[in-house]
UniProtKB/TrEMBL annotation:
Pfam families: Amino_oxidase (PF01593). One of its GO terms (molecular function) is oxidoreductase activity. This is FAD-dependent oxidoreductase. InterPro entries: Amino_oxidase, FAD/NAD-bd_sf, Zeta_carotene_desat/Oxidored. Signal peptide: none annotated. Residues 11-455 form the Amine oxidase domain.
Length: 459
């Protein structure tokens, strides 16, 4: 039996800790804050518990759904409500796309998202032949023109990465797009109606996933979870590795046979500065975007239900339209459990409708440097302009995610390969998390599995 340390109690670290415990090892999990879960977090809005961080997991790859099921959580799927794009003065249906690259040009034209000139350019497709990695925006612009990037790719990438289309690597973020758009002929079959849903969730909220994993760890008797412990350094010792841990000012050194570092790039870089300097330098070059989510509860009065089209799951907003919000998610229309959670909630007799807006893109951090009230006000102004909603909310809760999402810049895949090569030179060390091979929950779970396997296999 060996002893491992996992640094970081987000979903990546929790996954690694669980795998190591399941393999019969002792694990010490160190989390800097007083709460496990990282970007999976719950909040209370007008007495209803909802996600104020990540709210869905991809269903078309197995890792996150498999983890949820393994720790005893039920899995649900979004309703049939579809998204809109708020652009050129109206809410318009989102046509079929692959991260904004149109898969049906007739649908795109009918949506009214592009100007007539934009449609003409999109139809005059030019096949790009990029030499190496290229940004998603440059790739799509070369094939369909700038307007497709500005009005479709930007809002979709803004949703997933809070990033800029012309900076994010196609190879790292949407490798299928490189393959698709560099072909002469694009043939994408219509999705079969019985295809598996793209997304999944957990009734009651995704925040339950880390909590259920943590409960399983506690039940295993093999994992010691310590909160409020900031790891400052990972160092080599004659016997293996050790971490320098700071628990509310009291510094200790914890020895282990192996260490999994499951923290964002900046703290990981600091921890590895001496132990793996090449990896640390590369990690320090990964930028992060900040964003904020405002979750609202509205009384389900007729003027509110009339304004919010319940056929829509929400809308995305292209940056060129100059609005404050980049998206709105009508959570009550997207998730049956959110609608149910709002029933009879106000004074036990009036239904509440919960939904959220999101604000903030990479490079636009100053827009978030205002008081919470200002983010609420700007969101309500945009909601009113988009939907006609003028009622006052019963409650509004702001959750900020400073440095929440890593930006996979052009060259990211090569950067990650250099990081992994440098980390592999330190026996017993592994890294995982959103900084490497995908920011989504499923990718993070996969990276946690991989890191646990790597340290367990070493020595
Ligand atoms: C607002 C928002 C919405 C999102 N929505 C979705 C979604 O709907 N679906 C989806 O699939 N993905 C979504 N994502 C992405 C996804 O949630 C995250 O990428 C993922 O949860 C990251 O998990 P992680 O464990 O790698 O990192 P984190 O969740 O960041 O966890 C890292 C942990 O390490 C701790 N830590 C940091 N430094 C130290 C240190 N020095 N010592 C000890 N501990 C430390 C932190 O406190 C944190 O708990 C969203 C992200 C954001 C920000």
């Amino acid at each position: 039996m060996r002893r491992f340390i996992v640094v970081g109690g987000g979903i990546s670290g929790l996954t690694a800790a669980r795998d190591l415990a399941d393999a019969g090892h002792d694990v010490l999990l160190l989390e800097a804050t007083d709460r496990l879960g990282g970007k999976l977090r719950r909040g209370e809005v007008a007495g209803v518990t909802v996600d104020v961080g990540a709210e869905a997991m991809i269903n078309r790859r197995p890792e996150a759904v498999a983890l949820a099921t393994a720790v005893g959580l039920p899995v649900t799927h979004p309703t049939a409500a579809t998204s809109r794009v708020w652009t050129r003065g109206a809410l318009r249906p989102l046509p079929r796309t692959l991260m904004g690259a149109p898969l049906d040009l007739d649908q795109l034209e009918a949506s009214g998202i592009l100007s007539p000139e934009g449609v003409t350019r999109a139809r005059h497709q030019q096949v790009p032949h990029p030499d190496g990695d290229v940004s998603v925006g440059d790739l799509v612009a070369a094939r369909y023109g700038d307007e497709v990037v500005d009005r479709l790719v930007e809002p979709l990438l803004g949703g997933v990465y809070a990033g800029q289309a012309r900076a994010i690597s196609a190879r790292a973020a949407v490798p299928q797009l490189l393959d698709l758009l560099t072909r002469d002929q694009i043939s994408v079959p219509d999705p079969p109606t019985a295809a598996a849903p793209v997304f999944a969730g957990v009734p009651g909220g995704m925040w339950q996933l880390p909590e259920a994993v943590a409960a399983a760890l506690a039940g295993s008797g093999r994992v010691d979870v310590r909160r409020d412990v900031v790891v400052r350094e990972v160092r080599r010792t004659p016997e293996g590795l050790a971490v320098v841990a700071d628990q509310l000012g009291i510094v200790s050194v914890e020895a282990a046979d192996g260490v999994v570092v499951a923290t964002p790039a900046a703290p990981t870089a600091r921890m590895l500065a001496d132990l793996a300097p090449v990896a640390a330098r590369e990690l320090a070059g990964i930028d992060y975007a900040s964003s904020a989510l405002v979750t609202f509860a509205f009384r389900a009065d007729p003027d509110v239900t009339a304004a919010i089209d319940v056929g829509a799951s929400g809308f995305l907003v292209p940056p060129v339209d100059g609005r404050a919000v980049k998206a709105a998610t009508f959570s009550f229309a997207k998730w049956e459990w959110v609608r149910a959670a709002g029933l009879d909630k106000l004074d036990h007799q009036t239904d509440l409708l919960l939904f959220r807006t999101s604000l903030g893109r990479h490079g636009e951090e100053q827009a978030l440097q205002v008081p919470d009230d200002e983010l609420v006000r700007a969101s309500l102004e945009d909601l009113a302009a988009a939907t006609g909603l003028t009622a006052a909310p019963v409650d509004a809760v702001v959750q900020r995610w400073g440095g929440g999402l890593p930006q996979y810049a052009v060259g990211h895949v090569e950067r990650v390969a250099r990081i992994r090569a440098a980390v592999a030179e330190v026996p017993g060390l592994a890294v995982c998390g959103a900084a490497y091979d995908g920011v989504g929950i499923a990718a993070c779970v996969a990276s946690g599995h991989r890191a646990a396997g790597e340290v367990a296999a070493a020595g």
